[in-house]
Amino acid sequence: MGIEDKPKHIRGRVTLPAEIYDVLNDKMLVGRIIDISAGGVALVTRKELPVNTPLSLNFKFENVKYRRVAADVVREIKERKRKLYWYCFQSGYERSGAN
What we know:
The chain has strands at 12-22, 27-37, 40-45, 54-61, 64-79, 82-89, 94-98. It is mostly beta strands. The protein has a six-stranded antiparallel β-barrel with strand order 1-2-3-6-5-4. Strand 1 and strand 2 (27-37) form a beta hairpin.
């Protein structure tokens, strides 16, 4: 099943740098958001993250900085030589305004 199979929200293809805090392992990571919607993001990372891992994401989208966006890993998709993770936002996030 690919990302396009079951859309619940309108999604957009993007390329956005993201800071990722792995809550369980108390580690900061970097990744790249390649797909975004109101329900979550598709994110490429170098480190493997197990399904159900709680995360906190920081990223900038359309001149708005999003900080401490709570998310859980809901699935992993392996594409060629990269690992693609699909994340679902938990309720609530902080917007820090245009910058």
